[in-house]
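Hi, here's the filled form for the chain we discussed.

Project: internal
Contact: R.S.
Residues: 133
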Amino acid sequence: MIVVFDTSVWISAMHFERRKGKPVLSLEHARNHDTIAICSEIAEEIFRVLAGKFGWAPSAVRYRLSYLLARSEEVKISGTLHVCRDPNDDMVIECAVQAGAQAIVASDKDLLTLGSYKGIRIMTPAEYLALKR
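And the returned structure, exactly as it came back:
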């Protein structure tokens, strides 16, 4: 399965990793059993939030991302898809479309409200983990 994670799940998983909550468990599961798709725009937002808002050292962000994305697929997006109120949500959806993803894992309410887009299911980390049992 190809899966895209919205940035809020990435941030929760990486910054609060020691808590072993649903975001980190879902990201670890995807890393080990599925293919994570990402675009440079999502990676840049993760970097910007962790380094800027949470004070991570840039090298720590790069190191952790490289580990989590070891088996990932990077796709290019054009930024021309506009289906959501928030353009950051559009980049997640476009990334999923370009990757041929089957799922988007999100904690963003605007994304979750969509439920799906062009056959790509949009679900919470808990729902993603429930699929895997």
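Let me know if anything looks off before we file it.
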